[in-house]
Amino acid sequence: MIQRIQSVFLFLLAAAVISMLFLPLWSKTDAATGETVILTAWEVKSEILNADAASAGSTTSKSAIAIGLLAIAAAVVALVEIFQFRNRLNQMKLGLLNSLVLAALLGTSFYYAAYVANPLIAGTDNGSYQAGFYMPMLALLLNALANRFIKRDEDLVRSADRLR
Fold first, then answer.
1. φ and ψ of 44, to 5 deg
2. Which residues contact 113 (CB under 8 A, 6 or more apart)?
3. Which of 29, 33, 73, 159 would suit a FRET pair with 120, their CA atoms being 20 to 30 Å apart?
4. Phi-psi region for residue 127, left (φ > 0), alpha (ψ -120 to 50) or beta?
5. How far apart are CA 91 and CA 65, in angstroms?
6. What is the pLDDT of residue 19?
7. First to last CA, the chain
8. Hey, where are the domains in the chain?
9. Looking at the DSSP assignment, which residues form a beta bridge with residue 60?
10. What's residue 50's pLDDT?
11. Rounded to an integer, what distance in angstroms lies between the CA atom of residue 8 and that of residue 82?
12. What is the model's pLDDT at position 159?
């Protein structure tokens, strides 16, 4: 049924990855030039904020659409998984698929932060991870909890079938 605890976990998973679409994932600021690089789920945006520079206010961006598409895919799989409550084996398969999508999402986010956005700006620090970067980790935890409770339901049904 939809009111089971794994459905709540799956709904929270979908909410976490959807919120990732609107939150910044990573940012870095160069204090000397005033340049800021921000990674979101859709783009890597570089802005020069220093007013005394000749190019103040100019922005450049690169696409990071892979992060957004993987986040949408993870949310869709989780929502489909909620409504597969009559077939727990399909739910477990979708849970495994969602684990793979979430791992790819986490890896892609790290790749864009470390290898695409970080070299865009000079500086000694590596930038800072924002709230959106941690959403795939939360989603992986929620997916593991949902899979555990789905497996528990399947084991309960199988033990009840043995007693008949």
1. -110, 115
2. 25, 26, 39, 127, 129, 133
3. 73
4. left
5. 28
6. 96
7. 22
8. 5-162
9. 46
10. 64
11. 9
12. 84
Burial of residue 98, with CB atoms counted within 10 A of its CB: 0-12 exposed, 13-18 middle, 19 or more buried = buried
pLDDT under 50: residue ranges of the chain = none
pLDDT attached to residue 57: 62
pLDDT at 161: 67
Closest CA to 82 of 73, 93, 72, 91: 91
Give 21-61 pLDDT, tens digit per residue.
999 999 998 877 778 899 999 999 988 776 555 555 667 78
Burial bucket for residue 109 (CB in 10 Å: 0-12, 13-18, 19+)? buried
Query: Is residue 28 within a helix (H) or strand (E), and if so which, with residue range?
Result: strand 26-29
Q: 5-162: which CATH architecture?
A: Up-down Bundle (1.20)
Region label for 104, one of left (φ > 0), alpha (ψ between -120 and 50) or beta (otherwise): alpha
Say whether 61 sits in a helix, a strand or coil: strand
Give dist(CA 58, CA 45) in Å, integer: 10
What confidence score (pLDDT) does residue 2 get?
65
Helices (H), 47-134: 65-82, 88-111
